[in-house]
Design brief:
heterodimer, A: 127 residues, mainly beta, Rieske Iron-sulfur Protein, four-stranded antiparallel beta sheet, 0% helix, B: 379 residues, alpha/beta, TIM Barrel, eight-stranded parallel beta sheet, 17 helices, 41% helix, 11% strand, binds FE2/S2 (inorganic) cluster
Chain lengths: 127, 379
């Protein structure tokens, strides 16, 4: 096991970021052994989900990015995290994905989700 | 051995290969603020009225299927709002779009009732685009009125020769189709200027304006089918009424009218025409010119004079099916890539780099992404 991995309950978890790397209600994307994962901070809770939307492969990590000239539109961001509903909407066409189950209600489609553990100030993901 | 972990670059939103191919986006919307358009209203009387009755507002007391979009009408700005050239460049970078053809998206204008004010807003939009985009070397499609041919001609006289104006932009709707002979002076002028006519879906026919439309209660019907129906009707009307026999070099681009209806129109037009072509001689242009039949089969005009924007592409997932559809649609001659930025139906060029239909046929990919556009735009 390298410095980047820890064992929890017999499973190997890989360190993907520090807690401070991801601002509240935003996400980052990492590739772990070629698997693209978006890690979101939903009001202090961390979730990991496939970084590719099942609709047209938008990078989910962009959800919540501030729009160009957002002050002249009615919502601030391109899609985004809804911490209360525990969902993230895609930055391109706003499909909503459940951060825990990876499910999109309307289409019944699912994208992968990954278990997350926070240890000290580090975020680990089970691949 | 440890895992390989890599933080991904968060700017690019489409596959890397997209950045190696020229991408021309035929439908990129700019939305100036009303206060930024006002200085361009030249007539004081019009300006006075525009403070209470400006261009882009919804019809009150009517339903709007945009409630199906998570953000409601905000779906118009799902990606943001481009006001100046830098905004456009910033947005295009993410999606590997090299050449955005920008337009001033006054798409609610045709539904407004006041002819003087409509023309004033349209002119102001064009003047704004000339200052902020044409002068900044962003290829631009400027607007012409469908509701006022003389005004359209005046506008073409004003800026039709400008370098950087690459197309004229107008709208299709369920009112009189573009095959009507009254539009001939516009076609003649466009042909002489070498400008294609881009016809965008217009909120002028948000379907509460028709009986059938009034019963369309869902977004899928309204945007998915109402617009394509009128795109198709306009296409067939222009072809059968001899527009392209009189103006063979005129190129017409339908934006947001769908594109998979091309095979249907292609075979059905030819079938019906070949069965009973005798009525063509009494359509006004043929009647005047003494012509008996169309010069060519209807599908040939579809191939040569009509273009359709691909947004949203909705390509079948199986490459074989996709290839069949593309072939039947004469896509190498008729399809033009468009993103529709910043709307909720945004279509980045991802399809062209993920579907095997294009991996196996780069020539077709390049036709749609840039070659066809280069052929018709005055770039
Ligand atoms: S790509 Fe995610 S909603 Fe379309």
């Amino acid at each position: 096991m390298s410095d980047d991995t820890i064992a929890i309950g017999g499973d190997e978890y890989t360190r993907v970021a520090a807690v401070g790397d991801i601002e509240s209600n935003r996400g980052i994307a990492v590739s772990v052994d070629g698997i693209e994962i978006a890690v979101f901070n939903a009001d202090g809770e961390f979730y990991a989900i496939s970084n590719r939307c099942a609709h047209q492969s938008a990078p989910m990590c962009k959800a919540g990015e501030k729009k160009i000239n957002a002050e002249h539109t009615w919502t601030e961001s391109r899609g985004g995290v809804n911490a209360e509903a525990c969902t993230v909407s895609c930055p391109w066409h706003l499909w909503e994905w459940d951060l825990e189950t990876g499910k999109n209600e309307a289409s019944g489609q699912r994208i992968a989700t990954f278990d997350v553990a926070v240890r000290d100030e580090d975020i680990f993901v089970r691949i | 051995m440890g895992s390989s972990i890599q933080r991904l670059d968060s700017n690019a939103e489409v596959p890397e290969e997209a950045f190696d191919v020229d991408v021309i986006d035929m439908d990129f919307h700019v939305n100036p603020l009303e206060e930024d358009l006002e200085p361009y209203i030249e007539d004081e009387r019009a300006l006075d009225r525009l403070t209470t009755e400006f261009g882009m507002w919804p019809i009150p007391d009517k339903w709007d299927a945009a409630y199906a979009i998570a953000e409601g009408n905000e779906g118009l700005f799902t990606q943001g709002r481009a006001e100046v050239a830098e905004d456009v460049y910033e947005a295009c970078q993410k999606f590997a779009i090299d050449t955005p053809i920008v337009n001033c998206a006054l798409n609610m204008l045709p539904q407004q009732h006041h002819p003087v004010l409509k023309n004033a807003v349209l002119e102001a939009g064009n003047s704004y685009m000339l200052d902020h985009f044409v002068d900044e070397d962003v290829p631009t499609a400027l607007s012409i009125a469908k509701w006022d041919v003389d005004h359209a001609l005046d506008e073409l006289d004003r800026w039709g020769d400008e370098d950087g104006v690459v197309a004229a932009y107008s709208w299709f709707d369920p009112r009189e189709p573009w095959g009507v002979e009254a539009f001939d002076p516009v076609f003649e002028k466009l042909e002489s200027l070498g400008l294609p006519l881009l016809l965008h879906g217009s909120l002028a026919f948000w379907p509460q304006h028709s009986y059938v439309g009034d019963e369309m209660l869902t977004w899928t019907e309204v945007l998915g089918f109402d617009w394509p129906i009128y795109g198709m009707v306009n296409t067939v009307n222009m072809i059968m009424r001899g527009v392209f026999d009189r103006y063979p070099d005129l190129n017409v681009v339908f934006q947001e009218a769908g594109h998979w209806w091309i095979p249907f129109a292609r075979y059905r037009m030819d079938e019906f025409y070949e069965m009973h072509p005798e009525d063509v001689q009494i359509t006004p242009r043929k009647f005047e010119d003494g012509g008996h039949y169309l010069d060519r089969a209807p599908s040939e005009y579809l191939r040569d004079n009509i273009y359709v924007c691909t947004q949203p592409f909705a390509l079948p997932r199986r490459a074989g099916e996709a290839r069949g559809m593309l072939d039947l649609s004469m896509a190498s001659d008729t399809f033009l890539y468009s993103s529709d930025w910043p709307h909720q139906t945004l279509d980045p060029p991802t399809w062209f780099f993920t579907s095997r239909a294009f991996r196996d046929d780069e020539e077709l990919r390049d036709d749609i992404l840039h070659d066809n556009a280069e052929e018709i735009l005055r770039l």
